[in-house]
Amino acid sequence: MTGREWHMIEYQLRSAGLSRRRFGALSLGAGVISLLPPVAGAAAEVRESEVDVKTPDGTADAYFVHPSRGTYPAVLMWPDIYGLRPAFRQMGKRLAESGYAVLVVNPFYRTKRAPTAAEHADFEDPATRAALMALYDSVTAETAVTDAKALVAWLDRQPPVERKRRMGTCGYCMGGTLTMRAAAAVPDRIGAGASFHGGSLVTDKPDSPHLLVPRMKAQYLFAIAANDDQRQPETKNVLRQAFATAKLPAKIEVYAGTVHGWCPTDSRVYNHDQAEKAWNRMLALFRTALA
Questions:
Q1: What are the tens digits of pLDDT across the range 35-45?
Q2: Is the omega angle on the peptide bond into residue 115 within 30 degrees of 0, that is, cis?
Q3: What are phi and psi of 116, to 5 degrees?
Q4: Are 173 and 222 in contact, with CB atoms under 8 Å apart?
Q5: How many other CB atoms sit within 10 Å of the CB of residue 210?
Q6: Backbone φ and ψ of 161, nearest 5°
Q7: For the residues 118-128, what does the mean pLDDT come to?
């Protein structure tokens, strides 16, 4: 390593708050390199596997992916109503390449192992809609809590997970609600949540997710579809008030030109530019909240 490279490393680490004494105590091996921020655009080599997680209600099938070496913050990813499928494995892998140990769960495991929907299923087809809604109804406020506790406990037992750092959770459509229930169920572990075109975040029911905010210790991102905002314009305001009252940071944004479901890469209404914007917002959140 050249003197210039050494000084560049020292500058990076000291800019991150590492003292000269601490810097001097580290070797040029894993000690220094492990503290460097990821290189912009670099993708970590990852390991991936299909796993089964025991819960109070049975066995949840899931996809687990993480960088090949080292320990990293965990992220619990909840799919939309179409369930665990190749698009979400791809998204989980992409997140792992940014330096996270990611568990993508099948939320419908009580009824059916993944895949739980046909490829490119059409929600407008009455039979398909009925089947998907039956799966949706199998996930309740109560099961969301028991699942979150079991899945977080499982992650904490995995060697690639850095247990001294808090976890993140992200969810799409119905998964947005599940992130909030998880953050409230395990507040001492979950430090950040991201909801993409989340549904039923604010309702008039006593178990509405927004009423759980006082139980949370998580910073949040809510990426709201434009047409969802048109239908329920007050949702964003209620969420802002709930997080402000709880003194929790939350970025709540409406994404212009988007339709509900715009983020998954296999969605019929996928909006690449806005999905990338929301993804990068999530990465920024995780970098700060899970540090």
A1: 333 434 557 89
A2: yes
A3: -105, -5
A4: no
A5: 17
A6: -90, 130
A7: 85
